Amino acid sequence: MSGTTTAAFGLRRRATGFRANRWIVLVVLCMSLLLVAVDATVLHVAMPAVTEDLRPGAIELLWIVDIYPLVCASLLILFGTLGDRVGRRRVLLLGYGLFGVASAVAALAHDAHLLIAARALLGVGGAMIMPATLSILRQVFPDRRERALAIGVWSAVAAVGAAVGPLVGGFLLEHFWWGSVFLINIPLMVVSLPVGRLLLPESKGDRDGPWDVVGALMAAAGLFGLVLGVKRLGGGERLLTPYTLLPLLLGAALVIGFVRRQRRREHPLVDLRLFARPAFSTSVGCIVLAMLALVGLELIAAQYLQLVLHLSPLRTGLRLLPLTFAAMAAGLVGSNMLRRLGPRRMVVLGFCLTAAAVIALTAMGGRDNPALLLSGFVLLGFGLETTLFGAYESMLNEAPQAQSGGAAAIGETSYQLGAGIGIALLGSVMNAAYAPGLSSVPGVPASASEAAGHSLGEAYEVAGRLGGARGAALRDAARDSFVHGLHMTLLVSAGLLLLGAVMALRLPRLMNCEAPPAAGSAAVPAPRGAADSRISA
Question: Which portions of the chain have biased composition (kind: Low complexity) (predicted)?
């Protein structure tokens, strides 16, 4: 047998094996996503132990929590487009290694500054992993029907990770020290690196021209400024303070400069013509609106359960679990729904279900209503995941194979920005509706009323110091004002969700399952040039 024939036979065998094992590849990608999703929430329950051990200041404590999502969100476009250029598997494996090293440094950190640096490094690793998983998934599943099912599993795993993080963290803290919440990443990375090297296919976008390093840095710095400013607004900071306004202005200027630069370049980092496609731009807008309406609301709901209904943190987490389980269910049946309904009706249905859940939850009052909360949270989780599933699938399908890394990064960045803006916007609505109700409580001094107007938790502290009839009156007024503010926030969220439903009418009516022109060659590359290295392990 000639050498050429042998090589061709080997290529076909590897290609066939690759296609047969695409579901194993999905498992590997889902493990990557699970790791990042768990790490985003696992630290929340460990913060009291971290504070007691490292004694960070107020600013240091804020950076310990916020530096991971800040760095991750700002670098998604940089590493998503870099993967299109140098190889998505290569970036993913580098992200694995960086994540493992950063986890070890964070676990053994002896002061707050080292922990902040380690968390920033974790954000860099997360930004490498997140868009790479979606872009490799886009390559491994060229058939849209199979890809829809894979995206459903992928999104269900993301929901599991977000819910499991605090539970895993709580279990570890009961038996070990706070650094153990980071050490759990290391054995997973030790397994993921060789498994990923053996099983994941390499792929690159067929893009000409050099990678725009200046544009990538502009995008990263601009997004960092925008996300930082939005997070400060969400934390209750005023817009006109220098530490809030300056990052927003600089971030906006850099992002505008990035857009103008990409339009002028012959070989842009991100092809902005993607946004001229109605399905792509509408999908991105739907992701932003869905997160804008829901993330801030989820935080407020957690406060309602703990501060109004006086549930423990564990019982609060258990009450919110049905939302996660419903989201998992929607992810698993999403591909079926997409085939039957099409992108337009699926996303519109998701928005409408979520809006209905939000409106139903306006019946929440000062007393516990488990049946209402259960049904509302189940409908909320199912509707939200239905919306995000349809939007992500449509966005990823609309992007050419060569730009799948950049498209995935745009989707993840939209998710992060929508979440940050949602916290800021709905938090502002909540504060505007809550504070006026405490301005004239009989017998309560103006200074005490002003302090109580900052938050319900602070109002309870002030009421405790006042004591007697005045303290009881302030406590009741604060609780009633919080419930009123929650109702106003729910109504604003419902309006945003219905706006999203109107926007989703621009999506395609039917699910077109015809393969794009270059899909076949992208899925199993032809034997030319670097094709052999793309398929081989």
Answer: 518-530
